[in-house]
Amino acid sequence: MATSPASPLLIATLLLQSKPQLASLHHVADAITSFLDTSVELPLHKACKFGSLELLSRIWSSTVDLPQGDSSWSVRRLLHSEKFYQQFQFTHSLVEAAKQKDLGMTRWLFERFPACDVRREAVEEAAKAGALEILQYFHENGKNMNSYIDDEGDSDVEQRHVFWGYEDAVLAARAGYSDVVRWLYNFADSHTRCEQKVTRTVIETGCVALIEWLWQRLDAPPHEGMLGAAANGHAQMLELLEYEGCSTNPFAIIVRAAEVGQLNVVRWAFESIRNRPSQPSWEAGLAVHNAVVNGHLEVAKYIYARINDEDESQGKENLAAWKKAVMSVLAPESNCAAISRETVILAAERGFAEAVQWLWTEFGDGLAMEALSVMNDAEMTFACPLDAAASNGHLEIMKYLATIDAEENKNLDIHRFLGECFKPWCRGGHGRGCCLNCGSARAG
Fold it and tell me: Which PANTHER family does the annotation name (predicted)?
């Protein structure tokens, strides 16, 4: 497309209007504009961030202010002559247009870069943004290069290449644009689109209507995504999948839901377990730890209240095997464990005061720990809840644990030296917290 010099800046025009003797000297206005206007030096894709077609047109039509023989390296000249640079700018500019859902900017770019392809980055960004009009424009003004069907009907007509597929439907589904997902499957088929990943993402987002539509269209049941649906609180999706014969370890669902506080999913999972009498409910106790250490006390109480006491002895014997079975389903970063000393320490470290009190009330005797034990300096790990709470500034938890320790040990002097016990050394030169053993604290 031919270029024309950019119009003078308004400030230059107004300035020269007050100088009649310069009004006919157009090169003066051009010189002032060239000196003041740095916007034309912006790379096109960065200028797209401002959403101004006027700015884009100014950059496109600006002339190079260097002598003809020395201007081959200029970025502005490359924009009109170097095909690889044009493709780079076209792709990244389309990405910005898609982010803004700006169809007008998309048309502007198509008009000025007729030989450039629509790469996957632009398609995926438009799908992610839910920019259906832009996707439709791509479809109407280009050829699908990843289609299952090799359309040679218009082989003599040069068409812009559009690369559909890859992550486009996944990103649209993850962002909640079910209409975009349906449109992509109806009008932009692609052999590069991973159907399994698309269905898993839809399951994780909980869109029941869309997964049923995909299920019929793809003629293949989804097998993954139940844990993601559990983590996002989509009990209705889990119910549908179970009805259709898709299943996973129900206790893994409880652990994953407890970890993120999805009480409605935990309730659903217990109902599912109730229909399987061969499944011991004590196994669900592995999720209590996850719920507590992540601050979801209500979920922890719900799970603990539904563990059968008669299953407890058998559960402890089979705990290792159950934990291995659950962890084989969960993601590597997830964890499940029985309630232990570590549970209280993590709750204290993270400042969950109500959780610490509940743990001590329900499990204090079984945990068999002293609230005022000290940190394991060799392993750099907390050996007691009070140390964990103190190191992270949780005063309320410190006060509670100090009271518990005083009551259990009948130590009337504990409150007197509580503030001192966190100093590095006692009088005898022993390690931190030694005052609890020798009964003396280092003076101020």
Answer: ANKYRIN REPEAT-CONTAINING PROTEIN
Q: What are all long-range contacts of 79-87, with beta carbons under 8 Å and residues at least 24 apart?
A: 79/44, 80/3, 83/115, 86/113, 86/115, 86/116, 87/113, 87/116, 87/117, 87/119
| 130-146 pLDDT, tens digit each | 999 999 999 999 999 99
Residue 378 has which token pair?
């060799």
With residue 162 as reference, give the H or E element that holds it. strand 161-162
Query: Which has the closest alpha carbon to 26: 18, 16, 36, 35?
Result: 16
Based on the fold, state whether residues 398 and 423 are members of the same structural domain. no
DSSP H/E element including 143: strand 143-144
Co-location of 363 and 391 in the same domain: yes
> Could you report the per-residue pLDDT of 230-276, keeping only the tens digit for each?
999 999 999 999 888 887 778 888 989 999 999 999 999 988 877 66
Contact 330, 231 (CB under 8 A): no
**387 in a domain, yes or no?**
yes
Domain of residue 406: give its range. Answer: 341-410
- Alpha-carbon dihedral angle through residues 128, 129, 130, 136, given to the nearest 10 degrees: -90
How many domains is the chain partitioned into structurally?
2
Token representation of residue 46: 């960065």
Asked if residue 359 is part of any domain, the answer here is yes
On whether residue 351 sits in a domain, the answer given is yes
- Characterize the bridge pairing of strands 143-144 and 161-162: parallel
CA 247, 228, 235: angle at the middle one, nearest 5? 65
Type of residue found at 337: A
Answer yes or no: are the C-beta atoms of 200 and 207 closer than 8 Å.
no
SS3 156: coil
pTM: 0.77
Q: Report how far residue 279's alpha carbon sits from residue 295's, in angstroms, rounded to the nearest whole number.
A: 27
Whole-angstrom distance, CA of residue 16 vs CA of residue 11: 9
